C-alpha cells in the first residue's frame, strides 16, 4: 500500500485515491532580496518539501506538515520530471514577480500550505560572495553580512501561492 505520512504518523493517504484525476499544481514564490541575487534551491534532489496536504475527495486537510523529498514521493504526489532551474534574481524581486519553483503532479491530494525550510542559496550582488545552507524556517526570512561588500544581506517578505497549470 502506498502512503504519504508525516513524521508523527497522524495523517495517511492511501493508494485507494490514486484513481483520482491528475492535477498539476505549481508552487510559485516571490521575495524581497537586499544585496543578493540568484536565490535558489541548493540541491533539488535532496531538498525537503514541507507541505500541508488536503484530500480532494473528502476535503480533509492535514494538520501538520509532511516532510517529503524526491525519494519519498508516491503515486499520489510527484514532482514533474522537468525540474525548473529556478533562480530568483534581484530583477525579479524589483519587479515583484512570482516565479515557479516546482510543479507537483497530484492525484487525490493537493498541497494547501508550504514552509520553505532550509537548503537555499544565493550570492552577493556586488561581491559574488556565495551564501549556502540558508534556512528560511523561522519567519520565512534570512539575514547575514557580506564581508567582501561590507553590507548586510537579506531575504524577506517571502510570499507563495499554488497555481493549477495545464
What does this structure look like?
This protein is mainly beta. It has one domain. The protein is 3% helix and 51% strand. It contains one helix and 13 strands. The strands form four sheets. It has a five-stranded antiparallel sheet with strand order 7-8-3-13-12. The longest helix is centred in the middle third of the chain and has 5 residues. 20% of the residues are buried.
Largest sheet features: 5 strands, antiparallel
Number of domains in the coordinates?
1
**Helix percentage:** under 10%
Mean pLDDT: 84
What best-fitting shape do the alpha-carbon axes yield? Answer: elongated
Number of strands: 13
Oligomer: single chain
Count of helical stretches: 1
Instruction: Evaluate the radius of gyration.
Output: 17 Å
